[in-house]
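Dear colleagues,

For the upcoming journal club I promised to circulate an example of a predicted protein-ligand complex. I picked one with zinc ion because it came up in last month's discussion. The inputs are reproduced below in full, followed by the predicted structure.
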Amino acid sequence: MSNTINHNPNTNTNTNINDTPTNTSTRVGPGGSTTGSQACAACKYQRRKCAPNCPLAPYFPAHQHKQFLNAHKLFGVGNIMKVLKHIQPCDQETAMKSIIAHSNLRAINPVGGCYRRICQLQKHIEQYEAKLELVHQHLNMCRAAARTRKP
Ligand SMILES: [Zn+2]
């Protein structure tokens, strides 16, 4: 087949958007108690004591300083706190993942941000669909050839 599509999704920029707060080792979760003594990246930045129920600690552990800075730069801590305050606790993790992903992508690509990434992913889908179509066509040709060979 000469009309192959060379596409490797692994060549994309690593946006680190899958860095979820569940990977943290020093925190239990929103409202949970701390298991470490280190202040979260947000409290560290604001030079304040990180309370055991710090709402930002599950999402910005101490080692995620850059991730916090990205979110702070784009949204501001006050706005992030407002978002967390005005949504249901069950939605907070999704909202924070969205905020973090959005701000990380914006930091990587100050012009296109999320929009450019979405466009890239849509293009990948189109490429894979075209590739799948070619595979189906090839499969149909093979089936037709097999049918003609049968006695
Ligand atoms: Zn904190």
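Two points we might discuss: Helices lie at 41-45, 65-74, 77-85, 89-108, 113-149. The chain has five helices and no strands.

See you all on Thursday,
B. R.
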